[in-house]
Amino acid sequence: MSRDGSRERALPVVRAASAGRDTEPAPAPAAGGERRAGEPRAGEGGTVAGGHRSAEACGPAAGGHRSAEARSPGAGGPGAGVPIDRRHALKVMAIAAAAPSLATCAPDGESDAVTIPAPASNPRAAGTAWDPDLIAPTVPWERTLTADELESLAVLCDAIIPADERSPAASEVGAPDFIDEWVSAPYDGNRRDSVLVRGGLVWLDRESSERFGEGRRFRDLTAGQREAICDDICFLPDAQPGYEAAAAFFDRVRDLTSTAFWTTSEGMQDLEYVGNVPLSRWDPPPPEVLRHIGLEP
Description:
Radius of gyration: 35 Å
Order of helices and strands: HHHEEHHHHHHH
Structural class: mainly alpha
Shape: extended
Number of helices: 10
């Protein structure tokens, strides 16, 4: 009895199906017949200790099938008014992030899985050069190199990384396109590289004409003739007077070509790079290697 003499509502106790003990009593309804936050509606399935649904709410009925009440999206159905504690909610969120789909308590033969589709894009990204959409990446700027410049650039890229028995040439894996995208970007450093690369391609043709005959372009030279020009500009500290700018151009193109080539699957195979590959086992360094670096007596 309460202080004012009215009869208090009896507080029901939910018995855990597997633990064999009573859980805490459910809170009484608020004044005016309104439900408190998290309180099940009349007739809804309760919870067992730990915030999980009872076997009656999720498990199969006699004969291996759930009852009509359990299948119904209304009262007593899975997830209807079932309170979840914070720890259980975090577990559900972690499983949802790791698994491609979450199966419910449907019996075998029923397709009752919730598929989690991968996002097609990032709706919060503007998709611009300064706020790119990394989920669905695109190049938002126009390419600036001409077809003629790309042809000359491909010849130079292949002089830097030619085809051999282990891998294709740099142009075969898209190095010129990578450089075109790079120098076309609307950033200060990329714009400086654009001036350097486009001016360097003009210098190559002029140098080829001066050395090997009027009208000869770098793409028209033999492999030995192209190598002779590249040898004079391949290392900036050793560049002869008057060749410094050409050496800076060659250094930049060599760096961009290497970046383009060795970030492809063909380039990684050429390096015999085994990162980002799941291994069934990992063998530590042998004792002689550990002794050599001073980690084992």
